[in-house]
From TrEMBL, chain A:
Database matches in InterPro entries: Gram_neg_porin_domain, Porin_dom_sf
Species this protein is from: Colwellia psychrerythraea
Entry protein name: Porin domain-containing protein
SUPFAM superfamilies hit by this protein: Porins
Domain Porin positions: 17-360
Signal sequence segment: 1-21
UniProt keyword list: Signal
GO molecular function, one term: porin activity
Pfam families in alphabetical order: Porin_4 (PF13609)
GO cellular component entries: membrane
Highest taxon of the lineage: Bacteria
Keyword Nucleotidyltransferase: no
TrEMBL record, chain B:
Protein name, entry field: Phosphate ABC transporter substrate-binding protein
This protein's UniProt keywords: Signal
Signal peptide feature range: 1-21
Organism annotation: Colwellia psychrerythraea
Amino acid sequence: MKHKIKILSLFSALVVSSVQAEIVFNGFANIVAGATTSSDETLYGFDDKFDFKNGSLFALQATSELGDGLGVTAQIISRGSNEWSPEFEWAYVSYDATDELRLLVGRQRVPFYMYSDFIDVSYAYPWITPPEGVYSVPFDSFDGLGAIYSTSFGEFDTTVQVLYGANNDDLAALADAPAAFEDLMGLSVTINREWLTLRAGYIQTNMNIYLGDPNENPLYTGWTAFGYPEVASNFVIEDDTGDFIELGFQVDYENVVLIGEYTSLTLDSTPIADADSYYVMAGYRFDNIMVHVTYGVDDDSKDPLTTGIQPDSPQLAGLIAGTNIFTNSLTEEQSYYTMGLRWDFHDSAAIKFEYTSFSDDLDSTNDSGLFRTAIVTVF
Amino acid sequence: MKFIISILLLTSLTLSHSCFADISIVVNIANGRAISDTEISRLFLGKLKKFSGGDSATPVNSKAGNAARADFEKKVLNKSSSQIKAYWSKRVFSGKGKPPTEVENDAAVLAFVAANPGAIGYVDAASVDASVKVVKTF
């Protein structure tokens, strides 16, 4: 309710200001339906019952140019997976300092990936959503300052984006665990020339995530009791650092599209695995139909936490063994193929079909197949 | 059968239309610069904001759905209308830019270009009049 009032008051504020400045509304919507191919399979939030809600969303963006390079933008997204509750995912004041430099202050996207900036605008890319294996950081936005510098060297268009800020939203991906990502900072560089785009990104953040009372975690209490607080501290996420690296390319040459991204996420001193992921995609455009195939791999692992510790007693040996079992259990090796088709049947809308075959190389009982279809539009 | 023939006829009419309409790139009469094909395309994609001499450029679009718009996107930008729409939706929804101003038709493009010294637009070559300067015809 409070939320609704906030939205209403923001809109009325925008509407009032429209006496002076014109407001431009844009929007986009994705209606996604999907089901896994067998009753014991789940993948990316879908199971074998056809679901229209999990991947669907509606978004509305209001922008007003205030003059002298100043602008205000708010983007509100209602997601089926969030009971259609509207959320501000972008809300910023922009200032065009020069033709090359644009500053954004407020809520905006963290430029983790090649498609982060428009991650929900399915109309803007071939898939229904970019490959989930790579696009796996559990938050998209931050509150703070972004600077986008765009310039050209001959026919090379270069965009450099730097950011500094924080995200204090609860983590939906971790059962709404209270979380604080502070001193979130990063840099992304995109170079484009005609049909070739290259991108690299680096993001670093301080992390605090509450995973429950650590005193109820026997590994935490065990290492604390044995006098190894530095090992125990691996089982809480307090003042830890997360590092993220991304490398990507895109080739769009006549009717051929090739896309690839590699990401590496390092979460030292936390009970969460490090992740290395990549995908490669090849697509071909037949007039207004595009077919594409994607292959992706995710490798998760955790370095041992007990290296160099002497098992002086059977109890300590037991704790070391238990800890090693835990870190080994974080190892994952997964791969997937996605075959898809996009049909631009209308100037502002497209229909997409996708089938994903997912393999868990360590536990084949997690293997699954997912069929999805979507109508996506911008308006 | 009759239906199929009329569809075929309609399609061939549409096709011949989009193949044969020449598109003229027009600028203000006072604009004396030579503008390369790459510059034209980069100006309309928002990658370039100034003419090569340093003067600020204001590209103007013909309304979506107009033949001139589709022909321009195909011939000069080498993209389909959907691809251009996807391109701008990336920028609009990520705070990176907005598409050129849109006006109703060829006549409105000519009026806009005639009135704005930095303007650059495109019209069906048959619509060109003396109020603007043609830099190139595709």
